[in-house]
Write a sequence for this structure.
């Protein structure tokens, strides 16, 4: 029996002891009668069980991945640089610089055991729900939809990593230890089926008592994301990077999968047209407002019971000197990507722009980046080289500087009203999916279907709300360039960049043989000198093998039907 059933049984045993201590009846039923059947007959137990399954989303809050401590996958890319180079706080740096760290025996980028542990518990729930539950058919469908929504999310992560994974049956036979891998195409279809079922059965909104639970829009959003990934692999992989017969998606499937992505995104757009979702007028407030209509699925926190430490990890060093951790900071590559407020590109080759690089930039820049001179809390950020509480520090001077090594700090998602996050912790929501991403999915999928008018509608809806003019893209190639730019800027620090580069099969181009940079800022006459400096001590490595992460060797040893992904 699983851990959850054992826990419930122990809870019932303790409850029996309490009754015995306060009453005169002593012939209580033996605990062996608390079977699966008894557990599922009580709807309260089922509600506790499925609500507990949502904790899996915490694993990836704020773009994090379970490597080191609070390491974020954006730090494997060109948008974020972690300041530490020591194991733990800086594990992501070690991984980015050394592709050999990923191997079948190593722990890097490993979600296998955790993911399958969660899948097993979800499958047990689905088994008990079908066999024993004493609830209405409508309630049974909603519970199944929630379980499959979470299961689809877990499988989504496993397939992003490995491509070909084991699809565990939900009912009889799920305890079989020997299961072979399914093809990547089958895996994406399986995930899509889970989200499609959830989209069909879940309500448009949840009552206040079930806040934070999956909805129809969240399921359609995840379905759109799933089909976009599957279509991208079909278009861009073409079996160029791995010879395993089970990895990859047939190229012929790309058009159908892009259409599926576009259709699912359109369902969310319809809900927005009905007033369920909307782009937040103020980009900054959407990450702090609990009631923002832009959030389609998010994790909420409330002090003191449920908190997180995002501010402690990413706030400028001067917020609470000596007490912050300062994990990651923006790169110069990201800073340079933000447009001017009139929609033109920023360029250091433009003398006027170079003299005042932080003037007249687009609104998202001022919400996302803390730059030298930026107002923050009760001070202006002073990130120039030299002494001070927020000053730039050369990354080579210490393995754990706890200062910006790029000349910038993250502003996006920080709570400027939290003046003592060491004591208070943090409570801003972690948004797993928001309406802006759905519009970007729609724009990309429609572009691939040569529906450039539809792509422009989705892309311009986002740009206009961010106070930018319409896109100037004219053909499909230009639209993709514009969409890649928008995803890099709009979704910065939310955990998308690394996976986008992988699904587009551009990671080995963008992330390999590169040193990313910052700006060392020093006074020069009446202005400033902006010196481009490397923030990596060696070239980054992303080999094409990394498009498919190996399965942990101990799983190969335990599972007689399992084979390792070729090339590992």
């Amino acid at each position: 029996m699983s851990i959850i059933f054992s826990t419930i049984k122990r809870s019932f045993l303790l409850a029996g002891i309490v009754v015995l201590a306060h009453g005169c009846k002593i012939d209580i039923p033996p605990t062996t009668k608390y079977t699966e059947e008894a557990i599922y007959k009580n709807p309260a137990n089922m509600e506790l069980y499925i609500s507990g399954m949502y904790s899996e989303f915490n694993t990836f809050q704020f773009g994090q991945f379970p490597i080191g401590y609070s390491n974020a996958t954006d730090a494997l890319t060109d948008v974020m640089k972690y300041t530490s180079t020591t194991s733990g706080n800086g594990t992501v740096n070690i991984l980015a610089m050394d592709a050999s760290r990923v191997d079948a025996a190593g722990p890097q980028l490993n979600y296998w055991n955790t993911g399958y542990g969660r899948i097993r518990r979800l499958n047990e729930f689905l088994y008990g729900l079908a066999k024993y539950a004493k609830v209405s058919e409508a309630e049974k469908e909603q519970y199944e939809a929630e379980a499959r929504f979470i299961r689809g999310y877990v499988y989504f992560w496993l397939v992003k990593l490995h491509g070909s994974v084991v699809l565990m049956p939900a009912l009889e036979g799920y305890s079989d230890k020997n299961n072979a891998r399914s093809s990547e195409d089958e895996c994406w279809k399986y995930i899509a089926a889970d989200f499609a079922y959830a989209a069909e059965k879940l309500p448009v909104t949840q009552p206040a008592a079930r806040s934070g639970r999956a909805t129809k829009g969240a399921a359609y959003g995840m379905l759109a994301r799933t089909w976009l990934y599957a279509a991208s692999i079909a278009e861009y992989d073409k079996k160029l990077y791995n010879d395993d017969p089970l990895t990859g998606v047939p190229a012929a499937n790309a058009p159908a999968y892009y259409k599926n992505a576009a259709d699912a995104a359109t369902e969310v757009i319809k809900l927005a047209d009905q007033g369920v979702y909307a782009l937040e007028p103020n980009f900054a407030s959407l990450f702090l407002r609990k009631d923002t209509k832009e959030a389609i699925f998010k994790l909420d926190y409330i002090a003191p019971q449920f908190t997180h430490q995002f501010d402690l990890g990413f706030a400028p060093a001067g917020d609470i000197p000596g007490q912050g951790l300062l994990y990651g900071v923006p790169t110069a590559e990201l800073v340079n990507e933000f447009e001017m407020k009139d929609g033109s590109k920023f360029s250091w080759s433009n003398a006027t722009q170079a003299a005042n690089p932080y003037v007249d930039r687009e609104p998202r820049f001022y919400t996302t980046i803390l730059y030298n001179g930026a107002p923050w809390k009760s001070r202006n950020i002073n990130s120039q080289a030299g002494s001070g509480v927020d000053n730039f520090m050369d990354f080579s001077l210490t393995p754990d500087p706890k200062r910006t090594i790029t000349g910038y700090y993250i502003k996006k998602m920080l709570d400027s009203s939290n003046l003592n996050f060491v004591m208070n912790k943090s409570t801003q929501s972690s948004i797993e999916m928001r309406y802006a991403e759905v519009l970007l999915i729609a724009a990309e999928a429609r572009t691939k279907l040569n529906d450039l008018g539809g792509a422009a509608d989705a892309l311009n809806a986002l740009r206009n709300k961010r106070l930018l003019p319409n896109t100037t893209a004219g053909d499909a190639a230009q639209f993709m360039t514009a969409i890649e730019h928008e995803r890099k800027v709009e979704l910065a620090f939310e955990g998308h960049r690394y996976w986008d580069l992988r699904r587009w099969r551009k990671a080995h181009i963008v992330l390999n043989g590169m040193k990313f940079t910052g700006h060392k800022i020093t006074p020069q006459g009446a202005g400033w000198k902006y010196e481009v400096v490397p923030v990596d001590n060696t070239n980054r490595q992303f080999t094409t093998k990394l498009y498919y992460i190996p399965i942990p060797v101990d799983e190969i040893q335990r599972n007689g039907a399992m084979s390792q992904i070729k090339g590992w």
